[in-house]
């Protein structure tokens, strides 16, 4: 028996507000609901993943999710949460973003089966509509007073808002009406900052269709323990695209979250059930690093796949686990070694210099500056501090040769337990 969607969201702390009657409607059978995504960025982020998780829980509860891609609304720009006018994107950029984001969503929801997800582009609602049609068929049904009452508008009264952004809530309301008519979609969901736009849609449907009943549900915005918005690392957004945020950095993001955020993050992002999450918290409450690793593994596999997770985990082991073995280093593929070279200090040396080999003292002091002088390099070797590809170097006469290269390109040098370097021969 499938768990109630509302019960699922309640224990996860993922309900911020809802209109009356939602729970009763959901209990009556399979319901169709949607969330909209505007393609203003080239990829979705883990911030978007919160809303995708809502659709996932909705689908797992036996309901039918619609992903509405904002091919039209993205051309306008949602003013919600913005204190200044957005810079409009070109149509070509928006189309490119939409196609890429749609492909990401298809990997995260089930598009087959009795309650298969549906992906729709709202540009289809407006292709044949001219300005006069919009003003007569859409603008006539929502008053200026009603629109001015919305926070997304009120918060911009001092700084100003163009008619373009002012009209955004009309477009979102009309989206809901189209989905209501064509797909029997009665529920719109989104973040709490979308409440005004969403309820404009329920009001729009009520005024257009006699006896209609449409519903709204919003989730709290995910914030960190320090009150800041969740979803960014020191480098900026954490993207779902592996070319924009590598699987390694994606995995590392979860390993580095604040311990205090773990309960919330498990409830927002894990597909584990209530009793499974609570058991993990009981078993590893004293060991938050293990909890982070379990969550990071689940999410990295879901977003990037098993192989990408294994590579990310192997790189993490090599960089941060002092007990990492030579076998683990030798098993890394070239992309993982390239990634390591980006994460720790690295040096490039002309490969021709390996024809006769490079003495370890020269390699450490003159070719790389890992040691500041030849005497320091000698002392490091004599104190057993130097390893090359996880092999201890104890002979000051050791010569690095082509046969030592990993993938005919790299060597890893360690100076003590914490100082790691990559030397690339090009």
Automatic annotation (TrEMBL):
NCBIfam families, sorted: tyrS
Family named by the database record: Belongs to the class-I aminoacyl-tRNA synthetase family. TyrS type 1 subfamily.
Coiled-coil zones: none
UniProt short sequence motif 'KMSKS' region, positions renumbered to this chain: 229-233
Source organism (scientific name): Candidatus Opimibacter skivensis
Location of the motif 'HIGH' region: 39-48
Keyword set, alphabetical order: Aminoacyl-tRNA synthetase, ATP-binding, Cytoplasm, Ligase, Nucleotide-binding, Protein biosynthesis, RNA-binding
Catalytically driven reaction(s): tRNA(Tyr) + L-tyrosine + ATP = L-tyrosyl-tRNA(Tyr) + AMP + diphosphate + H(+)
Subcellular location: Cytoplasm
UniProt keyword Glycosyltransferase, yes or no: no
Gene transcribed to yield this protein: tyrS
GO cellular component: cytosol
PANTHER family membership: TYROSINE--TRNA LIGASE, MITOCHONDRIAL, TYROSYL-TRNA SYNTHETASE
Subunit structure: Homodimer.
InterPro entries recorded: aa-tRNA-synth_I_CS, aa-tRNA-synth_Ic, Rossmann-like_a/b/a_fold, S4_RNA-bd_sf, SYY-like_C, Tyr-tRNA-ligase, Tyr-tRNA-ligase_bac-type, Tyr-tRNA-ligase_bac_1
Upper taxonomic lineage: Bacteria, Pseudomonadati, Bacteroidota, Saprospiria, Saprospirales
Protein name (database record): Tyrosine--tRNA ligase
Function according to Swiss-Prot or TrEMBL: Catalyzes the attachment of tyrosine to tRNA(Tyr) in a two-step reaction: tyrosine is first activated by ATP to form Tyr-AMP and then transferred to the acceptor end of tRNA(Tyr).
Residues noted as binding ATP in the record, renumbered to the chain: 232
A GO MF label: tyrosine-tRNA ligase activity
């Amino acid at each position: 028996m499938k768990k109630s969607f509302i019960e699922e969201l309640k224990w996860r702390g993922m309900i911020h507000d809802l209109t009356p009657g939602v729970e009763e409607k959901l209990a009556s059978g399979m319901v169709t609901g949607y969330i909209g995504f505007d393609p203003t960025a080239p990829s979705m982020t883990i911030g978007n993943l919160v809303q995708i998780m809502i659709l996932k829980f909705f689908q797992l509860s036996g309901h039918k999710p619609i992903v509405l891609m904002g091919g039209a609304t993205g051309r306008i720009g949602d003013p919600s949460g913005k204190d200044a006018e957005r810079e409009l994107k070109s149509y070509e950029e928006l189309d490119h973003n939409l196609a890429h984001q749609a492909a990401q969503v298809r990997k995260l929801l089930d598009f087959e089966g009795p309650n298969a997800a549906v992906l729709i582009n709202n540009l289809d609602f407006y292709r044949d509509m001219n300005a006069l049609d919009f003003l007569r068929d859409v603008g006539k049904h929502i008053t200026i007073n009603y629109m001015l009452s919305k926070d997304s508008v009120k918060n911009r009264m001092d700084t100003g808002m163009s008619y373009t952004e002012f009209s955004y809530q009309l477009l979102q309301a009309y989206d809901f009406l189209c989905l209501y008519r064509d797909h029997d979609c009665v529920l719109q969901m989104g973040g709490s900052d979308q409440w005004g736009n969403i309820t404009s849609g329920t009001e729009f449907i009520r005024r257009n269709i006699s006896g209609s009943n449409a519903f709204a549900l919003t989730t709290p915005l995910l914030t960190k323990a320090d009150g800041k918005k969740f979803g960014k690392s020191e480098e900026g957004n954490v993207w779902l695209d592996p070319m924009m945020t590598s699987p390694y950095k994606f995995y590392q993001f979860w390993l580095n979250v604040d311990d205090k955020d773990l309960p919330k993050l498990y409830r927002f992002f894990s597909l584990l059930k209530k009793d499974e999450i609570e058991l993990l918290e009981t078993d590893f409450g004293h060991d938050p690093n293990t909890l982070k690793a379990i969550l990071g593994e689940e999410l990295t596999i879901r977003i990037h796949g098993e192989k990408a997770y294994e590579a990310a985990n192997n790189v993490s082991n090599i960089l941060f686990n002092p007990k990492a073995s030579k076998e683990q280093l030798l098993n890394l593929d070239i992309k993982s070694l390239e990634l390591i070279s980006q994460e720790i200090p690295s040096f490039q040396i002309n490969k021709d210099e390996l024809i006769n080999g490079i003495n370890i003292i020269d390699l450490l002091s003159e070719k790389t500056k890992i040691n500041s002088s030849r005497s320091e390099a000698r002392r490091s070797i004599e104190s057993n501090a130097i390893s090359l590809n996880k092999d201890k170097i104890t002979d000051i006469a050791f010569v690095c040769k082509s046969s030592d290269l990993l993938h005919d390109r790299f060597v890893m040098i360690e100076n003590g337990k914490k100082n790691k370097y990559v030397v690339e021969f090009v």
